[in-house]
Design a protein that fits this description.
Elements lengths: L1 E10 L5 E12 L9 E5 L8 H4 L16 E5 L14 E2 L4 E2 L9 H15 L4 E7 L1 H12 L6 E5 L7 H15 L13 H15 L2 H7 L12 H16 L2 H12 L10 H5 L5 E7 L7 H10 L3 E6 L7 H4 L1 H15 L1
Parallel strand pairs: 3-4, 3-7, 7-8, 8-9, 9-10
Antiparallel strand pairs: 1-2, 2-4, 5-6
Helix pairs in contact: 2-3, 4-5, 4-8, 5-7
Length: 338
Amino acid sequence: MNILRTEQKFITETGAVIPGLEIAYTTFGNLSPDADNVIWVCHALTANSDVEAWWPGMVGDGLLFDPGKYFIVCANILGSCYGTTGPASVNPETGKPWLMDFPLITVRDLVNVHEILRKHLGIKKIHSVIGASIGGYQALEYTVMYPGLIQRLIVLASAAKQTPWATSFNESQRLAMEADQSFLGGDPEGGKKGLKAARSIALLSYRTSVAYNLTQKEEDDEKMASFKASSYQAYQGDKLVARFNPYSYWCLTCLADTHNIGRKRGGVINALKEAEAEVLCVGIGSDLLYPTDEQKFIASHVKKGEYVEIDSFYGHDGFLIETALVTDVIRKFWAKTI
């Protein structure tokens, strides 16, 4: 992982000022002489810049993101806790962590922060920008904000605008975090119990009832307590608490709720028409959080759009797990557009 540091003040979409930035990023491969062989990967909610680690089977010799052919870039997003400036970072003006004082940020802010990195790396064209879930939000915004820069957009399990359904999941998670008294009290170590509860809520949107009913099925029909499903929820909550910051989690759920590609652009449909890139939208038939109609909508309103659906037992998380299916779909898309 690399860190780009800049002392330049960053002005958010809402007008807040962040006095200087740190941007964490990871690259694979080498930039071509024409600086145009770039695959820019936009990560999801709690991931980081090391796409090789959180998306196994995608980066490597002969794989879809082949460092021998492409210059792969993945940058940690503003507001996260994996190296890029966020709520856990120290505010240089106070000498203390931002915590809940970190400003509301938007998907457009993520793009503008990563534009600083793009220019630093000397990238002139982006062969493909790819993102799933809120990474898809960023990839779509990037394509609309800089239509001449990006040649291909690949959106997986995402949407053109945050839906009330998705916002409701996020608000439920924030309510769970507020119930943890240590969270709103300004304790840098606070919010862990709330984050554990929030993760448990989120998991219900990431998977399906079919998956739970099979993987967490009890062998003992006489059991009346200590259920496998209960242990699984607690285990997954503890895993996130061990690796993620509660204040960043709060910040990023609020960020997701701001997503609206049509804001100040005359509506979603008008905004989608501004995308000049070749667009591939991939839906997952079992996705409860981002139903396939969301991806179909994007594909049908951009100038050059295609929709492909994959089937997965794993629901929304299928984009991370069905590596072979995702690879096949994108390879076919590239073959038609290169």
